[in-house]
Amino acid sequence: MASRFNAQQQETLVAWLMVSPALILLLAFLILPFAMAFGLAFTNQRLISPNPTEYVGGRNFARLLTVRLLTLDPVVDEAGRAVRDEAGSLTYPAVREYTRGNPNYPQYDGLQEWRTFPWGQKRLVLLAGDAVFMKSIVNILYFVIFVVPIQSGLALLLALIVNQRTPGVNLFRTVYFMPTVVSLVVVSILWRFIYDGNNGLLNNLLSALTFGNFEKRDWLGSPATAMPAIMGMSVWQGVGFHMVIWLAGLQTIPGVLYEAASVEGANAWQKFRYVTWPGLRNTAIFILITITIAAFGLFDQINVMTRGGPLDSTTTIMFQAFIRGYEKQDIAYGSAIAVVFFMMVLVVALVQRYVTREQA
Amino acid sequence: MLIFTTMTAAVGHGASKTVQGRRAGLALFIRYLLMLLLGIFFLFPIVFMLVSSLKPDFQLLQDSGTLRAFLPVGDLSLDNYREAFERVPTARFIFNSMLVTTLTVLLGLVVNSMAGFALAAMQWQGRNAVLTLIISTLIIPGGTVAIPLLLIVSRLPWFGLDGLHWGWFNTYHVMIIPFIAGAFPIFLFVQFF
Lengths: 360, 193
Fold this sequence. Notes:
The complex is a heterodimer. By secondary structure, chain A is mainly α.
């Protein structure tokens, strides 16, 4: 009896049956929610709500991204002289007089104070639709600018050091990789002890090293040190993983090239500059892009260690998406944050691809 | 560098060997010293965690300024572990983690390897389109889908032993099913086959 299908049709059918479980799961739990993020961002959807969901246009994005500059002149009395407070400083009108339903300034209505700068006699106030979100963008850029070069550079250095066939080198590779294996939540709790303001390990260590001259500080409790503390801990945790990727790249470089360089009389630096570095090109691009994307997504450490504080100095985009979307159950606003986040990551990845493109 | 090589060459073959040997020995020593210092940097928080888990609270604070923080000395016991199991159902937590991990990995192996094989080793219409779709999902950050995913799983049906339910919150399957398939594992399988 002849088969109803020919061999080619049969193979196509079997192949579709084999990919369909994965494809259906990816469609349902990755592609659909991704598409929904774009749709939901234009609605007022909440997790649980008695009211029907409505289309609200770009309102969520407008609130997220609006930034305006307000210039405040010093307060003057009837005679035109500046009113000074008890300390003799100039006084300024309160920002809320402009942002709370003032009919003369509809463009400032509902905005929040983000930052204030002195400008001669005047005072410049940056207003934002969502000041905390603006702070989270600044914070994440601060984090990315420091963590990406430090982590990738340190990882390369580690890889170069352990890329040798000396006895015991495997032990060191394992030790450097170890923090990566521990869960980020566990690592975050551990580092909270290390950074503790009273009896933290770091304070005591610095105090012992300087014979008691070091003034103890609350690393996670002060806006100036909280983010650098999280950077340090993040690099410590993540650098081992990228060391392994660098190491894989290093081992694809044929040893003959180094021998040839030695014959030519190249020193260690020249060997690195003209043999190792060109050979690591693709690895470098991969590491740069993955570290950057991971750094933009900073969340676990913040959630466990600081919850965005103190004074919003460590809040990040992903943490805001979580707070708004999950804790405050405002799915639509959280989705709008997620879309802005995706756009930022996409732009950065494309720029990095362009900058590191193959030169003809 | 150049001067140094010419000098050693001038001194003669035998002398050059010992100088080079000494230099190599010194380089090796510095390398090991560096590896050791870095090892301490990566290991000290983990050692601190392990050692502290054996100490009572007051001693942990007392030791934290000295080297004793990293040494298993003083009043050591497994009391902290006993308490962890008594105060909260830690055994249950471990069981949950093991169950979720095992099922996700096993199901993921089956689903992803099957897809990877079909995409790598079979000839069929639509292959390139499906491969492109799956690879392009690599760019989607986990954070972007988290919130809509929350909305989706809150409204999915489930047929349990006691009938039909709506919403997947607080269940095992909500921690497993959305995380079985992944573009990255499929990609690795495609490369392998």
